[in-house]
Amino acid sequence: MKNELENPFSVTKATEFSDVEINEYWVSFNAKDDKSFETILNPTEFLPKYLIGGKGSGKTHILRYFSFPLQKIRNEENIQTILSDDKYIGFYSVLHGLNSSRFEGKNVSQAEWESVFEYYFELYISDNLLRTVQEIFSLLQLDSEKEKEIIQNIIKAFGNYEEIKTASKISDLIEFLAGLRRKINSQVNNAAFTRKLEYDEVKILFSPGDLLFGIPKNISACIEQFKDVKFIYIFDEYEKLFEWQKKFVNTLVWDKKQPVTFWIGARRYGYTTRDTKVGEVMKSGSEFQEVNLDEIIRSNEELYKQFAEKLYVNRLIKYYESKGLKVNPDEIKRSFCDRFEPYNEAKILEEIIQKNKKKEFKHLKALRKKLSDGAKSGQALDLHDDSKIDKIVEAITLNTDNNPLEQKYKLFYLYQLWYSAKKGDTFKSFTDLINHEFSRFQNGEYSKFKDIVEKRKKDLIAQLTKENNVKNTEYSGIAEFIRISEGNARSFILILKKAVEFAKIRGEKPLDDGGRISLDSQYLAVYETARWFYEDIELVGETGKNMYSSLKRLTDYFILERFCDKPVETTLSCFYLKTDRLTKNSLDCIDIMKMHSVLIEDTEGRNPKNSGRTEKMFQINKVLAPLWNLPTVERGSKSLQSEVVEAIFNPDYSSKFDQHYKKRKSELNAPDFVKLENGNLSNTTELKF
Amino acid sequence: MNYTIFYKTSYENGNIDCGDGYDLFVSAYDGCERTATIFDKIKSNKKIWIDFPHYKNDLSEEHVYHCKSFREDECFIDLFTSIQLEANLKICIDITGFIRPHLIFFIKYLHYSGIKKIDFLYSEPQHYNNAEDTTFSGFITEVKVIEGCGSPINIPDTDNDLLIVSAGYDDNLIARILQFKSKIKKKYFLVGFPSLQPDMYQENILKINKVKDSIGKKIDKYAPAYDPFITAQVINEIVEENSNHSNIYLSPLSTKPQALGIAFYYLWNFEKKPISIIFPYSNTYHPKTAIGIKKTWKYTFELP
User: Fold this and answer.
1) What is the pTM assigned to this prediction?
2) Is-contact B199 B128, C-beta < 8 A?
3) Measured in whole angstroms, how far is the alpha carbon of residue A249 from the centre of its chain?
4) Which of A14, A389, B208, B243 reaches 20 to 30 Å from A675, CA-CA?
């Protein structure tokens, strides 16, 4: 990380860390409790693990941490300690290197591909195994006779034993296996032209498992120090495999033989099957353990907070130490947190006032237009022309001291009254009532505005920022960054990286004494992180296209609910669905959005009164919220009717979305408010379409 | 090996010199003036328009070979069956309208069939529609090794893998490649400089910058956007700088001449180095993104 020292958060992916850095930057999740990574994964037990998590959840960091190169670092290269204390060796392999998509098509049958792939897979993984074993033998200073004995035991399994029986060293075996892989690679490559595989070149020379299980078994049997040592094959990027290739890996896991076990790392969307080749379905709990990182972390908010704090403090310590400075972790944490300019709504309002110094506020202009349109269409009570509009606007601005937010409070109330108007109501009576209540509010007396301010402030500020093209800096401060990162360490570190970058560009000296990170820099950091998260969703093909289209419709709907004259819900960010009424297409799309952490499901859901059914609750990932100026707090929620859900998530019904959208828009905006059956838009979350 | 010693020349306004002419000329129909002009002017015993299904053309002209499959290894089967490929066949390919993975597969097939020498033509447009916002491809359907473009060597220890991306206009393609090989630490971006037109360099930089958070750490290198031989030379330098490299992944996401450079480097090295060419595939490409014809380059490949 030497070149990155100007920003302690510049590395956001474990892949970019060296082994030493993986060790140095390791922060365990709740190290003292039963939810630490060490306790959950427990390398001393045989139960295989599937480590599942979204991008940036820390899988690779964790898997590499338990690999042999890291064991060496932690044990200062002392192989005896590794064998006697750790009691396991981690053999880490990244499956992308297989280029597994080569094993398909080209006029070759599926059965042939399966056979060749399985053979190749064993050769490929054995290379890593043998190279590590070779290093261990060297560290153990194993005598050559012992090595020869082990190699001879292994190669007896080969069908062409006579040809290779002179092999006596691990390097001989490595070279021989490389030759076999070379033949297969050539055949697979050339099949694109020849449209076939030459049988003699890909002929299988040993039984499945002879190497993967046979080599460890032989070593355990021949070398005393290995007696109780587990061989853990750690496979990262399981999601890169085809479905039938995953089943093959599952079969290895299911059929594991001592002293071997497996840890499989997979993205959530790639963890698609528990099937094995033999028709058995692996049983979670008894045959393997599923470790869902996202769920573990998200369900322990306080622990994640502590974990995230350790992560950034650890990076800062390394940064300041590299500058030759003495550091105190508590002091670093305090001074870094203090550099984040706190959220200040007065600053936002001042910017809006300055922007509109010589012109009328946009919300007032919009009011004029709505009143005028309403007068023309007969939807504006006693207004039949524009003659009284000035008076209404004056009443709204009265005693607000040009404060746009106070005007917005009044407007919100006005639109509510307009919507629920009865026969004989006039705008004069409304504005009198509004100003009466507002006066009580200003005098500290009980008033309708107490409730409006308490519940609507964030939404109305968001409206003002959007109308005036001003940054909504509500997403600010370390605590908020941790919260909106939704348990995803990479998102959190990326926000910090960008906050430091933007602050540096602005000359704010974010890492120096007396420096700061302005609200502007923080806003840009969360916005850019949201953009990265959105654009980096790993989806291809029709599925990807549909997911993005559905997300667009969903966010359009949420934007409509927040940026309207009469928002029904407060800081709406969650929605409920009745899944038993949905089509497979919609459910699949929702599932994909969940897999990619675009939607976060509340595991508890809710049980509406008398329905007898549980509704599922979802929130758009908080880290995405700044893209659309949506709230991140889990306060307002809305039950979406099945027709609307279908129009949003089912590509076959997406053409109906416009219709639902327009109808909802009318219901939420003056002067086209559409009254519901009871003549009032109540606080209920149920909406009629 | 010095890759820059191979022959290249250029002609203005499509006025190409074909010498004695060719035995076979192949071009991809993309509805652009620049490919049509060359197709008319080239001297060849046999001329073939390749009609890719990605472009959704509706062609009924003579000399058209309709590809029935989107896949590069399937779409030319009938064509190759109908042509007698001999080592001394004089072949010229206008790469201008070709889809990159299909072009590279096509060249690999010719090489596999024993062809040692091929002339390639590439015509620069006057300009592209909407410059920075020009998108050439639709939604990505998959990312994979181009058929037939792997290596007999594949190193299981992936710690020192190299990803070398010739990066251009389409940031979506760059993002997909980086996701596909997200575990590779060492990433090189080969930027076209000088670019085909003065403003294109900046446009490329803007596009690459859009996906900088998906990229992480990278090292930028430069090669002229119109020169496959310098492109191959720069790739060679990158590989030599990383003598401890494990697998090498090349991804041609910029200009066709640079894609040609990647193919050239690959063909000279794939037997002895663990090289693969990877590409993010789309079944939709937008033809007619280029306007006019400015300069036509001719590159002569001599292959091992």
Assistant:
1) 0.91
2) no
3) 26
4) A389
